[in-house]
Amino acid sequence: MNETSTPAPEPESVATPPDSAAIEPAAAEDVPRAPQTNTRPSFPQRVLITSLFLVMGLAAGFVAWQLQSEFILRADPLAPGSGWAGQAQPDLDISLYGLEYAFQAFGIPPKQSSFNVLEGPASASQGPTPTSPDPAQVQAQMQLEAERTIKETSPRKNRVAVYLMLLGIMLGAATGLSEGIRRRSILMIIGGVLACAVLAGAAGFLGGALHARADAALTGQDLNREVALMVPQFVAWLILGLGLIAWPLAMNPSRKAAESLATAAIAGALLCSLIYVPLAQQIFYDDRLERSLPGHVYSFLFWFLFGSGVLSLLVGNACANIGRQPAPAAE
Predict the structure, then answer these.
(1) What does the pLDDT average to over 167-193?
(2) In 10 A of CB 67, how many CB atoms?
(3) CA 135 to chain CA centroid, nearest Å
């Protein structure tokens, strides 16, 4: 009887480890893509950010006007007590909520004599104007008037520097606060308010000093009156605008951001000079912008609000068009 041989058991298949080359593509598909390094806000977000900068800037301009009005009251010298000839007015110290230390740091002593021509014994006892046609007396009187004009010009330079420094501090703080809110960072809010206030305050001080120098350089030149008023305005607002964009540019170091912010500063200076001068002369027809500066208290309010509003609007629009860089994701 034939016996059938049982088939030999097949060898078990040994599981081989998968090839590492085959794993890498599959693993690569599971890795999430890295987030974009720059997220540009949508149109409604840009409008909201620009509005934030504008509102903050107008509020800063109003606060700066309050400080400037308080400074004018404290800087004006007192009248002589008795009115006797030869009695000098007191040269008092000026205190303005601690900002007098900023004046002193920039080289202006916080004294009334730094901003006014205080009458001394020599000027108070000049006597009546001579009526005789003595050439020597007439020449001496003309020399006294020329010296007084020089004395009045120098304190004016100090005042303009202080005016725009006060505006720069307030407007810089508002810009730093708005930029910190845009970036959604508490540290950026605190650091931005402090840094931008210092930078814009220093720029405002420099802009005020250059405003006075530009006006003095144009005095006596054969220029159109409105052009002579616009040039100092352009110089002052340009310097202040460059101080305002310094902090946002440091936080967004790119060529595109630099071009956008620089364009905003230059355009703001042009608008503040080309539009403000004729507009202010139409609104405040009794205040003719003597030496490219307003004289009335509400003319100063309009000057501060117009300049801060234009710069805040343009700088805010430039910042709104810069993409917000998100924080790196945790591994």
Answers:
(1) 94
(2) 20
(3) 52
- pLDDT higher at 42 or 303: 303
- Asked if 208 contacts 249 with a C-beta cutoff of 8 angstroms, the reply is no
pLDDT (tens digit, 9 = 90+) per residue, 191-201?
A: 999 999 999 99
Length of the chain: 331
Residue type, 290: E
Q: For residues 240 and 75, what is the distance between their CA atoms, to the nearest angstrom?
A: 24
Please give the average per-residue pLDDT across 52-69, as a whole number. 97
Q: For residues 192 and 177, is the Cβ–Cβ distance under 8 A?
A: yes
Contact 297, 22 (CB under 8 A): no
Whether residue 167 contacts residue 301, with contact meaning beta carbons closer than 8 Å, is answered with: no
| E strand or H helix that includes residue 124 | helix 121-124
E runs forming strands in the chain = none
Q: Is the pLDDT reported for residue 91 higher than 60?
A: yes
Distance of CA 210 to the CA centre of its chain: 15
